[in-house]
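@channel sequence for tomorrow's demo:
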Amino acid sequence: MNALEHQLDYPFGEHLPEPAEKHEVAPGIFWIRMPLPFVLNHINLWLVRDEVEGVQGWTVIDCGVSSDEIRAHWERIFERELDGLPVLRVIVTHMHPDHVGLADWISSGGDKARWSARVWMSLGDFSFAHNMLQGTGPSNAGGDAAAAHFARHGLTDPDTIEQIRARKTYFSSLVPSLPVRYRRMRDGDAIRMGGRTWRTIAGFGHAPEHMALYCAESGVLISGDMVLPRISTNVSVFDVEPEGNPLQLYLDSLEAYLPLPENTLVLPAHGKPFRGLHTRIHQLRDHHAERLEETREACRKAPQTARDIVQVIFRREFDIHQLTFAMGEALAHLHMLWLAGELVRTCDADGVYRFAPAA
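structure tokens (generated this afternoon):
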């Protein structure tokens, strides 16, 4: 536990549920923890005891990636942990593979087609997920467009670029199918779940239209990836929006959580449930303020590419999966300063963008 984590309260201590078991964190709200095949090796998923249109059952919130291992864990949950009741709906906070990967499969009842449940998502994330799966838009994580995007920002090592180019099926390998119909969630919607009212909170910068859920009666926030206790949410500029300003969007989105009580029980997608919401938001703001200042200082010394800034703000080596996100995040910090007028951007003779202080 690092120094910042000591400022937060972890009501369940060091407890971590096994992948195919549920752990109650508030009345009728259960924590499931599934493995991920990345350095970030887990995701938290949530079950809420529910009733929809007079039928008793469960709402699933986020799903995990598609793999034989994760499907097997879910099958055990269906058989042992649902008290013989059906899944009534599946809520997906956003379209990243660890959240939406098995949404279509779970909503249709798993391997045994036990039920038919509606998937709830925002329009932005439902549409973008379909674009990614069908190959009608750029893939953030790999393929020709992603390789060209990162090359324009200083990632010119041929072997690395070829590895990125080869990741064309990254999304579809983790999200093999998506529902063709859904229930739309919008910012500020009131959703009845578990006999209580939950309010949706839209967030931007990490995903097109991320939806967190807050229940004032229970004092619980299901924060998805918007507020995490140990790591900072990835905020990246990718080829699909090459002049984007996601860091500004993300920091602005954090404002929506400040009216919530400080002792709110935060249920994050990664890390452990915690209390200390305002403290964590201030930590995240300070974290990005420090990275922005490091970026300014580097640009004062010499024009910088995003690849240069990766070494400045991270100062460690990455595998290819991590490197794409590190590049995107370095660029997000550069773009926030560029679009605020603090930096200027030039495309040099080598076709690479560099950033320097505005005159």
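heads up for whoever presents: The longest helix spans residues 277-301.
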